[in-house]
Amino acid sequence: MRADDDWIISSLLEDLGALALARDRVSVHDLVETIGPRGFGPLLVLLAGMLILPTGMIPGVPNVVALFLILIGGRMMTGAQEIWVPDRLGRVSFSGHMLAVSVARAQRWALWLRPHLMPRLVFLVEGAVARRAIALILLLTGAVMTLVGLIPGFPFVLSLHVVVLGLALSSRDGLAALVGYTLILAEILFITAFFL
After folding, report:
1. Could you give the CA distance from residue 157 to residue 186 in angstroms, rounded to a whole number?
2. Are the CB atoms for 57 and 102 separated by under 8 Å?
3. Burial bucket for residue 72 (CB in 10 Å: 0-12, 13-18, 19+)
4. Which candidate, 81, 72, 22, 78, places its Cα nearest to that of 46?
5. Which stretch of DSSP H or E encloses residue 106?
6. What is the pLDDT along the chain (196 residues), one digit of tens a residue?
7. Which residues pair with 25 in a beta bridge?
8. Closest C-alpha to 65, from 55, 79, 78, 75
């Protein structure tokens, strides 16, 4: 993916792939350090991707992701630019091999997505109002995920709008943000239909 490593997601996937190959176990602190100053967008893509890809089947991963979404939403709501991770959460770890498999799959999707993402309608992803709206969505998503995260398939469904909003923030793409908002409505209908 070197031909496209000007895109923040491409460079992140390369770094995560290198991390996964270098370690048998990868901790949450390792992931946060690898993301570094790239911001909340790539972190959201990573978290949602962990639920969409094979890592989402690891027991406890949906709970960790839900907690992260609440932390990120809270940080964004206050205007912070980087994530703070409690030490206990930071020590949570999982298989480096599983991360490597997930990164390899994510890279294929990234190659397909890249031409479709670009800066446009940036007011939908930048500025205090837009960021607080996304922050509120993340807080609510994290709360809902803690309640229904043990139901098979629900973490996957709830991760769809998160990954799209993460891509929107990473690429300053307001149209992608609109797609993310539309997915929220579809997810609400799905969850409501399940319980009725």
Report:
1. 9
2. no
3. buried
4. 72
5. helix 96-113
6. 434 446 888 888 899 999 999 999 999 899 888 887 788 998 899 889 888 877 777 778 898 899 999 999 999 999 888 888 889 888 988 888 888 888 888 888 888 999 999 999 999 999 899 999 999 999 999 999 998 878 888 999 999 999 999 999 999 999 999 999 999 999 999 988 988 7
7. 95
8. 55
Distance CA 85, CA 102 (A): 23
Instruction: Give the domain ranges of the chain.
Output: 2-195
Residue 36: Cβ-neighbour burial (10 angstroms; 0-12, 13-18, 19+) = exposed
Model's pTM, two decimal places?
0.87
The tokens of 52 are what? 């969409």
* DSSP E strand boundaries for the chain: 25-27, 93-95
Question: Both tokens of residue 70?
Answer: 């609440």
Helix (H, G, I), strand (E, B), or coil: what is residue 40?
helix
Quickly count: other Cβ atoms within 10 Å of residue 86's Cβ: 10
